């Protein structure tokens, strides 16, 4: 709430500024009108505040109400990448597939990029987006995502308040990139977490109903930790639970991939 208030104050202040920010503001308004926000992980906890864990499909997992996937926890994470396919949801609802830095043990900021998908009636729509949480997300322009497209998403932090988000069309090699700078007005990164996530994000202040996306696989997944490229090995695996406590997404990993399946 505090961060949301700061963000809207800055947005109002920003509207007094001249041209260079017009396009970004325009996108911001559009995105904001849709009310989409990708959030930090919300773990399911017991009465003592301990994260609920379990074993699914021979994998030790932690449970969350909004994230499913894998998170590396440590220090010095400055880049995260993976390739994944735009899923074809089979039930009404939405969801997002993305890679990011922070949002687990660091809650002050998240540098993230990926796609979201919505099935409404017989139509499925997609957006490619970038976000420096707690700012809301912005749609990339110049890229149109369709079912089955393979994209490569990469975030890179050049400091704790600057970096970039890139989405590449793996078929054509075409990329769209957004550079962030001076994001201390939003929040500083900690560089504590590298993650590959399927999320039930927020829309109009409430969590979307997660569409049955089938299986999402993040392949060629890697991160840069203190200058060295690392794989997924050692990550916390997160399964998503519904509010009633049943598992709705189950995930597993290999050294270079994260696979999540809607149950
Ligand atoms: C990537 O390029 C292919 C070939 O032009 C196109 O069919 C596909 O929709 C594009 N996907 C994205 C995400 O740009
Ligand atoms: C669960 O395990 C089976 C057998 O190893 C595997 O084929 C399947 O992909 C796993 N599911 C997930 C979500 O990882």
From TrEMBL:
Question: Which residues constitute the catalytic centre?
Answer: 199 (proton acceptor)
Keyword list, A-Z:
Signal
Q: Quote the biased-composition stretches of kind Basic residues, using this chain's numbering.
A: 22-33
Keyword check for Iron = no
Cited InterPro entries: ConA-like_dom_sf (IPR013320), Peptidase_G1 (IPR000250), Peptidase_G1_sf (IPR038656)
Family annotation (SUPFAM superfamilies) = Concanavalin A-like lectins/glucanases (SSF49899)
Which BP terms from GO are recorded? proteolysis
UniProt-annotated stretches for the region Disordered: 22-41
Q: Using the record, list the residue span of the signal peptide; answer none if the entry has no such feature.
A: 1-18
Cite the CDD domains for this sequence.
Peptidase_G1 (cd13426)
**What GO molecular function terms would the record report?**
glutamic-type endopeptidase activity
Name listed for the protein in its UniProt record: Aspergillopepsin
Q: What is the lineage of its organism?
A: Eukaryota, Fungi, Dikarya, Ascomycota, Pezizomycotina
User: Which gene carries the instructions for this protein?
Assistant: PRTA_0
